[in-house]
Amino acid sequence: MRYGRFLGASKEPIDQVLAVFMPAGRSYTGLDQVEIFCHGGDQVLRRLLEELIHSGARAADPGEFTRLAFENGRINLSEAEAVAEIVAANTEQSYRVAREHLIGAYTEHVTMLRNQLTEIMAETEASVDYPEEDIDLEQKDQMLRLLDRLTQQTRELADTYRGGRIIREGFTIAIAGRPNAGKSSLFNLLLKQERALVAPTAGTTRDYLSEWIDLGGYAVRLIDTAGIRSGGGQIEKAGQAQAKRLMEEADLVLWLADVSAKGWQAHLKKDKIDLNKQVIICLYNKIDILEKPTEAQYADNSDQSIAISCVTEVGIAELKEVILERIRANQPDLTSGLVVTSARHHQKLERASERLAEARSLLELDESPEIISLELRGAADQLDEITGRIYTEDILEQIFAKFCVGK
Question: Which of 5, 168, 304, 384 is deepest in the core (most CB within 10 A)?
Fold first, then answer.
């Protein structure tokens, strides 16, 4: 590392900097690499970059440095994807999973699965190369047991994507209900800021509002939807249609009922029939308005329900804990680092398990080793596409296009 002045083409000093040279094989990319550390500030950075580009350098493409690291064997493909994950991590849970992926625990497990598969493939391919050495009964039973175990391990890893998707993409909650039920008030309360307009007039929210919060280390996307009712103008009806779509796509729906409104029980009974969605919590709001609110007034054994007040905040702590319980119910064990957060990896693992199951069926039916070997090879290829032992230009373009510039 060297300390000195960065001079422009005209020999004018631009900044005092530190510069370090990293030789090929010992840099992040695996190539000769120089890094310059300057003072922060838009003008300093702009001037330095202009001088470097004028001297023959060019701006890097998104993910170009990490792609070079992969192509030069410094990291494998799943570790390269983990770089983007750790940069994008915005909660404790997403950071923990991304960190384990970057360290390599996840890659080691996929490689272990691939090595087990290699052992089984060796048996079948030996029978192909040497037909006189057919697979005997004892050998067949052992291979069936190995395939059963490998298929189960592959499926178990694929199944972690259900929770891994929530860790990476967040848990979506749609706050819904009839107009003036207190949806925007709850939205603001959970968000801890006045983000949505609140008014006593029904139909205030025409379009939806969306914000992210950190709830117990999980990224939660809150959506304040338009009130659902019959009638209303053209814009309000469009908002209601949008609200119904958002509710269908959400991981959880919080349906608010205004218990101070006349006939709210009948309205709620009808609304539940129209909702036709299983993942829902009914919130009996505005209990602060009632003279003597009791739990018996709101009892409903058909689903989970909580009595709340957005004014006094009664029931809000219970609501947060119930939401966290819903999120945690689908979460895999994070201590092992074996969590699938990539849709691409999930697809590859699903296909690998399908090919393994097919290979087992063929082996049990005493099909020819050539056909069994073909299915096993197909499963191996799916695992190799996760770590990057097999890849195409299209796959690389798709992965690294999601990176930010400079990574």
Answer: 168
